[in-house]
Amino acid sequence: xxxxxxxxxxxxxxxxxxxxxxxxxxxxxxxxxxxxxxxxxxxxxxxxxxxxxxxxxxxxxxxxxxxxxxxxxxxxxxxxxxxxxxxxxxxxxxxxxxxxxxxxxxxxxxxxxxxxxxxxxxxxxxxxxxxxxxxxxxx
Length: 139
Prior knowledge:
By secondary structure, the chain is of the alpha+beta class. The chain has helices at residues 2-36, 47-52, 87-118, and strands at 40-42, 62-66, 69-76, 81-85.
């Protein structure tokens, strides 16, 4: 029972650390994906754009219609700039985001599988005393 509690403590600690790291790198990852998808870094020059930038939700891409065209804007208020792309860049961004999520899911599954394999011995396994194998037959 003590081994199980220790295992759960380690898993909880790993999940907590992964969550903290994900939050810290979330903005950086979003910005990097936007650049990789073809978003351009724009520094607002007009008063209208300067006023609009701080009103956009930080860390999120917002769709904006301007003069009949659709733009997608990721604000970076701290650096007084924005990452701007069109529909094609936004679609590429979404594909990168999905690919990253799949990669993260696969990594988490692989880590869980590795942890399960490493801790197989504490559950007894095939070589544990009293284990007779499938069907209760001894080998």
